[in-house]
Amino acid sequence: MSCDLYYWPQIQGRGEFVRLALEAGGAAYRDVACLPARADGGTPALLRELQGTAGADLPFAPPILKVGSERISQTANILNFLAARLGRAAKRPNALPTRCTLSSRIW
Ligand SMILES: N[C@@H](CCC(=O)N[C@@H](CS)C(=O)NCC(=O)O)C(=O)O
Question: Which end of the chain has fewer CB within 10 Å, C or N?
């Protein structure tokens, strides 16, 4: 799976949870806002992504993960998406509510 992460380049913040999941899962990804402007990256690329997303799937704030034509936002939602695709999802039926409760306390 390859994807693009959009998150503020100056801070770790919520983006770091997504980076850790991507690294642990061995995903190929670009940290777009950390790329130089000549590679179409940097904060302007992040702002373009935010401004270009008005409508049904409004992300509200970074982090945003783009996978193909899908745009996924909200940190807990991104982590749940990645856990399933990177083979990291717990098998217990109550694991998802537990993760959501933990993440709402952390974030
Ligand atoms: N509930 C969202 C919160 C996203 C959020 O607050 N992102 C912060 C950085 S950690 C931000 O970019 N805030 C600027 C803003 O809300 O305009 C999530 O978990 O992803």
Answer: C
Q: Is 61 in the pocket of ligand 1 (CB under 6 A)?
A: yes
pLDDT tens sequence for the chain (107 residues): 899 999 999 999 999 999 999 999 999 999 999 999 999 999 999 999 888 765 657 788 999 999 998 889 999 899 999 998 998 888 887 777 776 776 666 65
CATH second-level architecture of 2-106?
Answer: 3-Layer(aba) Sandwich (3.40)
Nearest atom in ligand 1 to 103's CA:
19
State the distance from the centre of ligand 1 to the C-alpha of 87, rounded, in angstroms.
26
Look at the block and give the residue holding tokens 């982090």.
Answer: 63
Q: Could you tell me the residue ranges of all domains in the chain?
A: 2-106
Q: Which two tokens stand for residue 38?
A: 């000549």
